[in-house]
Design goal:
alpha+beta; two-stranded antiparallel ribbon
Amino acid sequence: MHETAYEITTLTPQQASPTPGMLPTEIPPGVQMVTLPGGIRTLAYTPQQAPPAPPVPVAQPIPTWAKTTALLTPTIGGGIAAAGVGLSYAAPGLIAMSEALWAAVALIAAAAIGVPMLLRIGRSDAGAGRGSTHITQNITATGMFGKATGTINHR
């Protein structure tokens, strides 16, 4: 491979500027006008600058709610586990208690039906020796808003 050699020329202070009609906006990127130690101004490539280093991450403090949640999580889990163990030990007693409650409901239902029947039977037997009472009412009234009068007859 053959490389082309470029000749570097410099201007002396008596010579004209290298960019007589060149505006600063026409200078290509990566090139700038420099002044050499001898006072000569020339165009030169600027070295590529390394990109700025990324900012160092700053450690953020842990929010209070996160600390509280982290501390409560094992406590809540332990409470749920203890409740599960307690229910497993209490299950036979809970089953027996539910059966006792159903028996109590059945007793109350039987009492609600049986007691009025027993009272009715007891009254009809006691009243069988004497006659039944017959009550007659006669009520009369005159006009729509008239005073009503009535009589009650026991036989």
